[in-house]
Design goal:
This protein has 389 residues and is an alpha/beta fold. The protein has three domains: 168 residues, AICAR transformylase, duplication domain (Cytidine Deaminase, domain 2, 3-Layer(aba) Sandwich); 148 residues, Cytidine Deaminase, domain 2, CATH 3.40.140; 48 residues. It contains 13 helices and 15 strands.
Length: 389
């Protein structure tokens, strides 16, 4: 199997292709000309959504950027406030379409120009959601004819559409070449389900079923995210992903800050925003993102935001932020390795996190357990590290 690519990671890396040992490989190009990064995002995203569906029994979707998910989710009902906050219409959608709407909403700013991965055949409902979004491509196990006609129109007919054989599984050993040397390792075939979180080490040991689903989604998401990584989950969705940082507290701050913004976009003050005439959806998305972090903006940034909105700006106060974030029950946090210091839990508590999962095994485990108890959290030690590089 050989698939020519536009170029490598950068346009000056002109020689690029996908090669495989099978005469008829599991991946095919249905439309467009994929790049090297498109393929990386597609293959990482496909593994994530396939595992999410296997672990939860629900259709799954992910929005990938630079080989890590900006968001991931399984199917579930969408509230009117959710649809308004994230600029989705009120139509009837398939479960798969709802899964992608959730995944895209996790970080709409980061998802600008994403690569979409979905676990099931793309239907017309999902295609109509994708059509107005700025996106580079999609991978799926199949496409309904009506859906394919819609998405192939994107980007002047150049939208990248990939199809993968859902029956394909990789060899037990995987390899990569770095600086002319080949590294080999066993494929990470660890499975993630409710049994993984049985070892609760805190005084609070109760993890409700609906929370367990979010914990599974957050942890599967981490398995396919560049390390170090932290994911905050809610309602069957990874609402904040902190990826690729050298310190775990940096991951936690990023993930929790993203989750805070996701929750705050459904605050009454955010929903009441009026936008200047003619603003495209992408600029509205950026304006809302700036509004919910108004306290972080300097005067120049606030002046630019004011030009995007109609009427005076009534920012969300610190007390209102705290009160609003406290109304969301079932917020979870998962870590791809052990959490070494309590500062991670102290930051997570400010975002309403009450349930955690981490590998455990640190010399400082007891201090972190004590911190979880201080915050009334239920924390599970999984004994499973999920590094990805």
């Amino acid at each position: 199997m050989q698939i020519p690519l536009k170029y490598g990671c950068n346009p000056n890396q002109a020689q690029a292709r996908v090669v495989g040992d099978l005469p008829q490989g599991p991946l095919s190009v249905v439309n467009g000309a994929p790049s090297y990064i498109n393929i990386l995002d597609a293959l990482r995203g496909w593994q994530l959504v396939r595992e999410l569906e296997s672990s939860t029994g629900l259709p799954a979707a992910a929005s990938f950027k630079h080989v890590s998910p900006a968001g991931a989710a399984v199917a579930g009902a969408l509230s009117d406030a959710f649809r308004q906050a994230h600029f989705f219409d009120q139509g009837e959608w398939s479960p798969l379409a709802c899964a992608y709407a959730k995944a895209r909403s996790s970080d709409r700013v980061a998802s600008f120009g994403d690569f979409i991965s979905v676990s099931d055949t793309v239907d017309e409902s999902l295609a109509r959601i994708i059509k107005p979004e700025v996106s580079d491509g999609i991978i799926a196990p199949g496409y309904d004819p009506e859906a394919l006609d819609i998405i192939k129109q994107k980007k002047g007919g150049k939208y990248v559409v990939l199809q993968i054989d859902p029956a394909y599984y990789p060899p037990a050993t995987e390899s990569r070449t770095e600086f002319g040397l080949t590294l080999e390792q066993s494929h990470n075939d660890s499975t993630i389900g409710a049994d993984l979180f049985k070892n609760t080490v805190t005084k609070n040991k109760a993890i409700p079923d609906d929370v367990m689903q979010s914990l599974i989604v957050a942890t599967v998401t981490l398995k396919h995210t560049q390390s170090n990584s932290i994911a905050v989950g809610y309602g069957g969705q990874a609402v904040g992903v902190g990826a690729g940082q050298q310190s775990r507290i940096a991951c936690t701050r990023i993930a929790c800050d993203k989750a805070d913004r996701w929750f705050l976009k459904m605050h009454a003050k955010a929903l009441a925003l009026k936008f200047a005439d003619g603003m495209p959806r992408s600029e509205k998305v950026n304006a809302v993102d700036q509004f919910v972090r108004y306290h972080e903006l300097d005067d120049a940034e606030r002046a630019v935001l004011a030009q995007s909105l109609v009427g005076p700006i009534d920012p969300i106060t610190e007390d209102e932020r705290t009160d609003w974030l406290s109304t969301f029950d079932g917020v979870v946090l998962s870590s791809d390795a052990f959490v070494p210091f309590r500062d991670n839990l102290d930051r997570a508590a400010r975002s309403g996190v009450k349930y955690l999962a981490q590998a455990g095994g640190s010399a400082r485990d007891q201090g972190v357990i004590d911190a979880a108890d201080d915050h009334g959290m239920a924390m599970a030690f999984t004994g499973l590290r999920l590094f990805l590089h």
